[in-house]
Structure formats: C-alpha cells, structure tokens
Amino acid sequence: MSDMNLLQAINSALDIAMQTDESALCFGEDVGYFGGVFRATSHLQEKYGKLRCFNTPLTEQGIVGFANGLAAGGTTAIAEIQFADYIFPAFDQIVNETAKFRYRTGNQFRVGGLTIRTPYGGGIRGGHYHSQSPEAYFTHTPGLTVVVPRNAYQAKGLLLSAIRQQDPVIFFEPKRLYRACINDVPEEDYELPLGKADIVREGTDITLLAWGAQVETIEQAADLAAAEGISCEVIDLRSLLPWDVETLTASVRKTGRLVINHEAPLTSGFGAEIAASVQERCFLSLEAPILRVTGLDTPYPLALEKEYMPDQWKTFAAIQRTMNY
C-alpha cells in the first residue's frame, strides 16, 4: 500500500493494464510525452513506446471512431477525452456505434475492449466549458457501462475492471479530486466490481446517495446530521449503468427516506431515474418524499460556482426537510 492521489491511482491502473495486456493502447489529445492536460498518462509513453501510448488529432469524433475500430479488431483501446464537456462531438460515435456494435452485428463483432476515460464535474473554476456533468446522457443508452469513482482506491480498482470487461465503458473521473483526494492504494493489481454500489456508512434514519465527488459532500452532510442525532446511511453508487437497485432499495426500506445528490442539473438528471425506480419498489416503506440536491437548470456559471454546486449545507437542509416531513 502507498499514498496515492486520484491521478496517481489512474496512472497506476493504466500502467498495470498495459503491462498485463500487450494489446492495450492508450491514446488521446496530448496523452503521449506530455502526459495529458492533468498528467494522468505521465511516463506511459516512455515505458511502452510511441506505438502504445500516443497523441491523436484534436477531434473527439475521430478519437472514438478510431477506438471503435481498434476494439472491433481485438485491441484493448483506452481512449481519453480531455474534458467531458468535449465528449459531445463524439456523441454519435458513442451512442450509435460503440453502444450498438455488438447488437447490430448479431454478436459477431464487439467493441468490449473499449474504455473512454474523461474528467468531469466542477469545483475547479473551469466555467461552463470545463465543468459539466454529462453522465445522464449516456445512461439512456443500452450497451454502455457508465462508471464514476469517488476516490483514488476506488478509481484504480474500478478502472482496471472497466478496461478488462467485455462491454464498452465510459469512465468519468471527478477532476476536482484529482490531486485533492489521497488514499492508501495497493500498488499491485486489483479490481472492484462494476454495477455494485458501496455502502460507505451505515445508518438507520435516512439514506444519502451520490457518486463521484458528491460522495464527500454527503459524508460531510451526514456528519452535520449526526450532530443533530440523525443517523445517515451513506451510499456511493459507483456504477450508473447498470446501477445497483437492490442495495439502494434495501437501504431505503430500512430507513424510509432518501436524498440523492449530483452535480448535473436537476431536470432529467440521473437522480430522477433513481427516484422513480425507488418509488416503484419502496412506496409503502417511504416516510417522506424523495429529495434531490443537484446543480441548477442553467449553464455552469464561473462567478457563481459555489452557488451552483450542491454542498453539505444544501444537503443538510434537505435531510432536515425530509426528517421533519
């Protein structure tokens, strides 16, 4: 075990993936010698050469189209989109090609060896073109797996699982935590299960759910609630597609209450899908309406970033409203 920040954990996972799989290629804008804008791929080109870790032209549609072709040919393709905000030019390739490749070929061909890494979310004063959380767009697409880690330990294990599984994965990395989050992380190879939520803290009065950087926020809100005698169960969803309905509904049946956090805007955010699914399964167990604490239905603001972001105080207020319903 050693102390790693989230970036170092990502780099360690990529290093292990390339060391254990000679077909694994890592590519994207500036990922080669430069190591990417956040340095997530530092030293990989030095170690594995320019044929396995290399720069691409500045075209997201081209990056994913190229990745689809590589993966269809049996290569383990690990593509980086520099910011999640710029994944939209590749949207057609991802939802109409990547996600449907196996289906439309009758399982003759697949792109299961494709992982798309991309930093997402706010908190770094990046403004409206470097702060968005577009995960909900992709959870609407059968054939994709969508994964969001909350810390360095989770990031390494989940990324190795994503690279090695037989469905294409979009791996959203919370860039606010890249250097701010440090954990004890095994230096050796390990994997964490996809599609399985993680109960971070057990509680009896209310369930708090989030993913990515927002898990830290709901933990802080749970601490505020504990000072008021409220016992919060804290759950990290980890995988959004597929997502772990069973773990969450078991928790809500126990606590009778649910608050969901995410940075994306409220309308059609993934929290709406979760709320609907839980309501269908847990209606008779609910003691209060399900609440969502989210970003606003506006473009991501630069000057008013703190007002936009869901924080522990907004979450604590939602906990109080739910408990006092």
Which descriptors would you attach to this protein?
single chain; 325 residues; alpha/beta; Rossmann fold; 2 domains; 7-stranded mixed β-sheet; 5-stranded mixed β-sheet; 12 helices
Description:
The protein has helices at residues 6-20, 44-48, 60-72, 91-98, 101-104, 135-139, 152-164, 214-226, 245-255, 270-282, 305-308, 312-323; strands spanning 2-5, 24-28, 53-55, 76-80, 114-120, 145-147, 169-174, 182-185, 198-201, 206-210, 232-236, 239-241, 258-265, 291-295. It has 325 residues and is α/β, with parallel strands linked by helices. It has two domains: 2-185, Rossmann fold, CATH 3.40.50; 198-323, Rossmann fold. It has a seven-stranded mixed β-sheet, sandwiched between helices. The longest helix has 15 residues, at 6-20. The model has no long low-confidence stretch (mean pLDDT 97).
Short summary:
With 325 residues, the protein is α/β, with parallel strands linked by helices. It has helices spanning 6-20, 44-48, 60-72, 91-98, 101-104, 135-139, 152-164, 214-226, 245-255, 270-282, 305-308, 312-323, and strands at residues 2-5, 24-28, 53-55, 76-80, 114-120, 145-147, 169-174, 182-185, 198-201, 206-210, 232-236, 239-241, 258-265, 291-295.
